[in-house]
Amino acid sequence: MNPAPPGARPREPVIAGQQHPTSPATGPVPIDAQEPWMRGLHADTGYLLYRLGLRSGQLFNTFLQESGLRLRHYALLRFLATSEGALQRELSSRLGYDPSAIVGLVDDLEKLGFAERRPSPDDRRSRIVVLTDDGRAFLRDTDEAGLRVTNDLLQPLAPAERDTLHTLLQRVAEAELDS
C-alpha cells in the first residue's frame, strides 16, 4: 500500500460490500472522512449505528460461513439457549424477524440438528422450538470466535469504554423491546 502524501487528509477504510466511487485507473476510491457530506453522516448517531451494525454483521457472517449459518441463525440459537423453548411467533416478535423468516431459520437449524420443534406443553396444537444438545455444543464451540469478532470490531476502544458502550446499547435495546 502506498503511504499517503504529506499533508493528505486521513481516509476512511473501505468496508467490504459498500459501494464506493471508482476510478478507471485506480479502482475503488476510499471515502474521504473530511468531506462535508461525510462529516454530516458521522455526526448522525443513527447512521454510525447502522454502519457498525453492517460491519458487525459482515464479521459475524464471515466467522459463521464455515458452518453454513448466518447471523440470524446465531441470534435464534442464542435466544433459544436462554429459554426452555419458544413458539415461532414468540421468536419472531422477540428477535424482530418476519414470521416467514423464522420458519426458514428453524428449518435450517433442524436440518443441522441444532434445534427441533416439539409439541407445546400448554397447547398440543402448537409447537415450540427448542435448542438441542448439538445446538448447545455449537454455541459453546463458537463462543471464543464470537468474542474475537467483537474484539476486532471494538479494538479502538479501551476495555472500560467497551463496557460503557455495551451498557448503553443494552439500555437502548431493552427500551426498544419494552415498547
Task: Quickly describe the structure.
With 179 residues, the chain is mainly alpha-helical.
Radius of gyration of CA atoms, rounded to a whole number: 21 Å
Number of strands: 5
Number of helices: 7
Strand order of the largest sheet: 3-5-4
User: What percentage of amino acids are in beta strands?
Assistant: 5-15%
First CA to last CA: what distance?
Answer: 48 Å
Using the alpha-carbon principal axes, give the shape: elongated
The SS-based structural class is: mainly alpha
Largest sheet: 3 strands, antiparallel
Q: State the helicity in percent bands.
A: 55-70%
Spans where pLDDT lies below 50 across 5 or more residues? 1-23
Look at the structure and give the mean pLDDT: 80
The H-and-E topology, N to C, reads as EEHHHEHHEEHH
SSE diagram, text form:
Blueprint: E1 22-23, E2 27-28, H1 36-42, H2 45-64, H3 71-81, E3 86-87, H4 88-95, H5 99-112, E4 115-119, E5 127-131, H6 133-153, H7 159-178
Antiparallel strand pairs: 1-2, 3-5, 4-5
Helix pairs in contact: 2-6, 3-5, 4-5
Written account of the structure:
By secondary structure, this protein is mainly alpha-helical. Helices cover 56% and strands 9% of the residues. It has helices at 36-42, 45-64, 71-81, 88-95, 99-112, 133-153, 159-178; strands at residues 22-23, 27-28, 86-87, 115-119, 127-131. A hairpin with a 3-residue loop joins strand 1 and strand 2. Helix 2 (45-64) crosses helix 6 (133-153) and helix 3 crosses helix 5.
What characteristics describe this protein?
179 residues; mainly alpha; 3-stranded antiparallel β-sheet; two-stranded antiparallel sheet
